[in-house]
Amino acid sequence: MPSITWGIVQGRKEKLVSRVIICDYLKSIGIVPDELQDLELPSTVEIMRERVDFLQKLGLTIDDINEYPLMLGYSVRKNVIPVLAYLERIGIERSRLGEFVKVYPQCLHASVVVELVPVVKFLRGLDVEKDDIGSVLMKYPELLGFKLEGTMSTSVAYLVNIGVNPRDIGPMVTQYPYLLGMRVGTMIKPFVEYLVSLGLPKKVVARMLERRVYILGYDLEETVKLNVNCLLSFGISREALPSVIAQYPQILDLPLKAKLSSQQYFFNLKLKIGPDGFARVIERMPQIVSLHQHVILKPVEFLLGRGFSVEDVAKMIIKCPQLVALQVGVMKNSYYFFKSDMCRPMKELVAFPDYFTYSLESRIKPRYERLQGKGIKCSLAWFLNCSDQRFEERLYGDYMEPESSGPSFSMGGKLEMLGSDIVSEEEEESDDETLYRRTVSL
Question: Where does this protein have compositionally biased stretches of type Acidic residues (predicted)?
């Protein structure tokens, strides 16, 4: 029986004539019909015109159609409309349907029930929120063409196997759906194993991926390995590499040689910090490679204006690079409290520049007042560089705990806190947890 789509039943001769007429029409509007030779075309030029008009109203141009002319073989009523209606129903805005089809025109001949619905159910099963399905597919429309038992399942299984929390898979897919299209053997596994070879435990790598899964898209051979070698060439110690990467994974994908060269020259010229000192700064705060130089100068100028020498400021920045990222207003308040209320010599700030990184209202003032009330005299580090629980232990202890220069970062074992022999059972952690906690705190 004749159908709405194909018009009337035609014989072989009539079909050939119709094909010639339709191809001539397509050529007349700029569409190259060469790829349609093996495709069954509609019986009349009117139906083909209807398809072209529909696609153009959707937002596609003639050039877009020429990119994938096979879309002209899909029935508007049987294929295109049902697919578009479903895409709109799962969260893709009608105004962006044309954009979606441009990227993945193959979706127009997909079966809604057999092909599209299972993929959406799979995403929901990964804990992708219902309201995020549309945005996930807009980022990566090709997901609709993947087989569930193929790359998508194996990539998720591998990530969970290395320690990624299954509950974080959904947010990771929402942030970076391309991970579902990455092959484990050629992309994900080599990347993870390379980071592990640098000294990063798998558990730390898993935590990094949970928060910044997009790093899986970095080119391992052309970018990541070159940047690691670049860091080493600028004096970053191999032992510090894991800490640098864990603190700032984005450093693996930057134009690093140019950035490091520029910042090293700036630190040497303006701050009088040589290459070795610059390397120690990067080890402690790798984000500095991306910090604008005018931002760095503001806290430096503030310190110089308070009477610190250039040499002292250089020492302070090497000890505590976070200084160059602080707001001057915050530093002013802390400095004036230090001078007017605490009445301490400036050399204490040179010895412990971390003072500026603590909150004046929630840590410095309350703790200082407690010390005053008990008549205790101590260094800045002794009463600031510790948790609230440890501060209470120090405050009411019958001993003065040895001074500590801060945590020592060691990839080979547990993080050792100097002068912290008394550790409660609740504080015991695995080596990987200790490393991760330290990198997050940094």
Answer: 423-433
Q: How many CA atoms lie within 13 A of 228 on its CB side?
A: 22
CA distance 97 to 422: 63
Tally the C-alpha atoms within 13 A of residue 131's C-alpha that lie toward its C-beta.
0
Q: Is 130 exposed, middle or buried (0-12, 13-18, 19+ CB in 10 A)?
A: exposed
Classify the C-alpha dihedral 324-327-332-338 as positive or negative.
negative
How far apart CA 404 and CA 397 sit, in angstroms, is 17
| Amino acid in position 393 | E
For residue range 67-115, what is the model confidence (pLDDT) as tens digits? 999 898 888 999 999 999 999 999 999 999 999 999 999 999 899 999 9
Q: What is the signed CA dihedral for 413, 418, 420, 425, rounded to 10 degrees?
A: -10
Give me the pLDDT at residue 395, please: 85
Contact 122, 164 (CB under 8 A): no
Tokens standing for residue 157: 């299984």
For 314-328, what is each residue's pLDDT tens digit? 999 999 999 999 999
Distance CA 409, CA 353 (A): 19
Tokens encoding 124: 């929901």
Contact criterion met (CB below 8 Å) for 53 and 19: no
| Residue whose token pair is 């510090």 | 240
CA 194/CA 214 separation, integer angstroms: 16
8 A C-beta contact, residue 143 and residue 177: yes
Nearest-angstrom CA–CA distance, 235 and 280: 8
Helix (H, G, I), strand (E, B) or coil at 65: helix
CA distance 402 to 419: 6
| DSSP output for 153-188 | HHHHHHHHHTT--HHHHHHHHHH-GGGGGS-IIIII
- Secondary structure element (H or E) that encloses residue 56, with its range: helix 45-58
Q: Distance between CA 159 and CA 168 in Å, rounded?
A: 10
- What is the C-alpha separation between 290 and 250, in angstroms, rounded? 10
In this structure, what DSSP letter does residue 68 have?
S
CA–CA dist 247, 438 (Å, integer): 9
Closest CA to 135 of 98, 163, 96: 96
Name the 3-class secondary structure at 101. helix
Residue reference for tokens 């609740």: 426
What does the DSSP 8-state code read for residue 109? G
Say whether 228 sits in a helix, a strand or coil.
Answer: helix
Dihedral, 277, 283, 287, 293 alpha carbons, nearest 10: 0
